[in-house]
Amino acid sequence: MQKPLEDYEKMQPVAMERIRRAFQKDRLAHAYLFEGAAGSGIEDMTRFFVQLLLCQNPSDSVPCGHCRDCRLYLSGNHPNAAKLEPDGQYIKIDQIRELIYRMNKTGFSEGRKVYVIRQADRMNASSANALLKFLEEPEADVTAILLTDRLHAMMDTIQSRCQLITFRQLPREQLIRELAGQGVTESMAATVSMLTQSKEEAKALAEEEQFGQARKTVVKLVEVLNANVHEALLLLQTDWIPLFKEKEEAERGLDMLLFAYRDIASVKAGLEEMLTYPDMKETWKQIALQRSFAVLSEQLQAILTAKQQLSRNMNRTLMMEQLVLNLQEG
After folding, report:
1. d(CA 101, CA 124)
2. Nearest to 118, CA basis, from 145, 140, 100, 93
3. Architecture per CATH, 208-329
4. Which of 121, 148, 172, 265 could be bridged to 296 by S-S, CB 3.0 to 4.6 A?
């Protein structure tokens, strides 16, 4: 389903203006490099651009949505549109060769051919060089769109042959408003918007029972740490360790704990807007009264150190016990 034009303009006004202006003035590049994180709207904008390039009856640089090409593309069946993504860890040379073969074939449908390569930074050396050769000898009716969230990992020679368009992250306030409009509570929206820029992922997290329990456990640990270290160590065994078993879950738990202490430091500094846990503001104020900025700085550093230890595969239970002791000493 095609979104209203206003949604794209709100999502990425600069990128949208560049795309539409290039199309309107017939100054389209043969290759584009879209750089942006998940949740920035990069996927939605890519679909809009591909549809625009294929549309038979665009109006004011907007696809009509009704012609045969628009209908084929929206149904995922357009013969002149191809997409590629990693097969396992990398995009392999055979995938690029197959793509080039398809782009060189006479299309079943007249008009431009468009191919999209997702996670283009994950091409290995051989596949990147094969694509580079194709980019160096562009076909007039073929447009490439490469997507990446790691621009630094892209070959310089490929970057130099593409028109770079950067997608900024969506403002957190906008994401919170959109989530609230879909029934997510303000407090939960504030929390999940710190963990992901993707509205779909944020909404899924907000509705996940386990994540709700994880949020409660993080808040409870901060409260208990302020009162009794022995109770905090017990909470680790009964609640924290079972909830944050996997490495990815443990990393998210540490992030959520870090955001809680950032909230406390923000409240102490009188910066109470855009907290991660706005429903805990009064509790954070009480804790902030008992902590100096120096102590809060030490506590934040202790959590960052624990994150580094987690990445080095330190025993998680031991790491968390040490973190609780360090936070208590702080």
Report:
1. 19
2. 145
3. Up-down Bundle (1.20)
4. 265
| Per-residue pLDDT reduced to its tens digit, 3-16 | 667 777 777 888 99
The dihedral built from the CA positions of residue 296, 298, 303 and 308, taken in this order, carries a sign that is: positive
- Characterize the bridge pairing of strands 31-35 and 113-117: unpaired
Tell how far CA 35 is from the center of its chain: 11
- What tokens were used for 114? 């468009």
| pLDDT tens-digit readout, 19-31 | 999 999 999 999 9
For the 5-166 domain, the top CATH level (class) is: alpha beta
Spatial distance between the Cα atoms of 154 and 195, rounded to a whole number of angstroms? 26
Distance of CA 260 to the CA centre of its chain: 21
Q: How many whole angstroms separate alpha carbon 236 and alpha carbon 208? A: 21
- For the chain, the domains span 5-166, 208-329
Give the strand order in the sheet containing 31-35. 81-84, 113-117, 142-148, 31-35, 163-166
The string over 147-166, giving b where at least 16 C-beta atoms fall within 10 Å of a residue's C-beta and e elsewhere, is bbbeeeebbeebeebbbebe
Write out the DSSP string of 209-259.
Answer: HHHHHHHHHHHHHHHHHTT-HHHHHHHIIIIIHHHS-SHHHHHHHHHHHHH
CA distances (Å), 91 to each of 124, 127, 187, in order? Answer: 7, 7, 40
Q: Name the nearest CA neighbour of 293 among 250, 262, 251.
A: 262
CA distances from 60 to 21, 25, 52, 115, 250 (A): 10, 11, 10, 23, 49
pLDDT digits (tens, 9 = 90+) for 284-322: 999 999 999 999 999 999 999 999 898 788 888 999 999
206 in Cβ contact with 188 (< 8 Å) = yes
